[in-house]
Amino acid sequence: MAKIFCVANQKGGVGKTTTTVNLSAALAAIGQRVLMVDLDPQGNATMGSGVDKRQLANTVYDVLLGESSIAQARVSSAWGEAAAKPQSPKYHVLGANRELAGAEVELVSLAQREMRLKLALQEVDTEYDIVLIDCPPSLSLLTLNGLCSANGVIVPTQCEYFALEGLTDLVNTIKQVHANLNHDLKIIGLLRVMFDPRITLQMQVSDQLKAHFGDKVFNTLIPRNVRLAEAPSYGLPCVVFDPSAKGSLAFIDFAKELVVRFESF
Ligand code: ADP
Ligand code: MG
């Protein structure tokens, strides 16, 4: 059975999509069978995996509305010449585009509206080791579908002044979903991203996070690295675009840490 993880944080621009895409590529690179689900109507995780969101015949939208199975809608991540390693292992992508923004309204009238992704994932469960879900920056019905499908949540967070405050809201939401809808759900860990050890405040907030969340804070730190920000414009995960970049190496380390961690589940 696949382990299903949501990458969630209701704040925008904190590194969710960068984490989902590069962790998918890194897990594939260390031999895991990965399905990446894009639950954000912006479709950035789809594009960042080399898949043109405008060309998709079926997306996660069709899956949520019961008009397509995941087996019909998924595609393979795509890279060719632009990739440093064109042969890099691929992963599967259940893509998203603007159409998904309408799902929010359309789902409301459907039965089991928050369980639709979960039910669809059950059909492909045995084909993957890991499913990673990129959530939108809100606590919407889309995010709820992600949280109801998942065994756990990976929370990317910047080490900034308001980080702890934002995390309190997310932790409360996860507790509520755990209590009412998904007893499996737990926080797998907090991933410190865009980290710059030269900034004293970041070191302080990082220490605060460790004091507050203990071993729920992953050991791996994702550094601020411009290559991570550049890779999406080539339609590639940085792990594929520039495997030797500091950011790529950090995501490979993180993939390894995660695999060890979920052996203990
Ligand atoms: P979210 O999905 O939470 O909105 P993104 O992953 O899209 O966040 O990241 C927001 C912006 O920050 C993007 O432009 C992305 O390229 C950039 N970014 C993310 N992580 C890093 C990093 N470690 N170093 C440098 N830039 C980063
Ligand atoms: Mg995003």
Write the layout of secondary structure elements.
Layout: E1 3-7, H1 16-29, E2 34-38, H2 44-47, H3 60-64, H4 70-73, E3 75-76, E4 92-94, H5 103-107, H6 116-122, E5 130-134, H7 141-149, E6 152-158, H8 163-180, E7 186-195, H9 200-213, E8 217-223, H10 226-230, H11 238-241, H12 246-263
Parallel strand pairs: 1-5, 1-6, 2-4, 2-5, 6-7, 7-8
Antiparallel strand pairs: 3-4
Magnesium ion (MG) binds next to helix 1.
Spell out the key features of this protein.
binds adenosine-5'-diphosphate; globular; 265 residues; Rossmann fold; binds magnesium ion; alpha/beta
Explain how this protein is built.
By secondary structure, the protein is of the alpha/beta class. The protein has a single domain (3-264), classed as 3-Layer(aba) Sandwich (Rossmann fold), CATH 3.40.50.300. It is built from twelve helices and eight strands. The chain has helices at residues 16-29, 44-47, 60-64, 70-73, 103-107, 116-122, 141-149, 163-180, 200-213, 226-230, 238-241, 246-263, and strands spanning 3-7, 34-38, 75-76, 92-94, 130-134, 152-158, 186-195, 217-223. The longest helix is centred in the middle third of the chain and has 18 residues, at 163-180. It is globular and about 50 Å long. Adenosine-5'-diphosphate binds at residues 12-18, 44, 137, 193-194, 222, 224-225, 228-229, 247. Residues 12-18, 44, 137, 193-194, 222, 224-225, 228-229, 247 line the site of adenosine-5'-diphosphate.
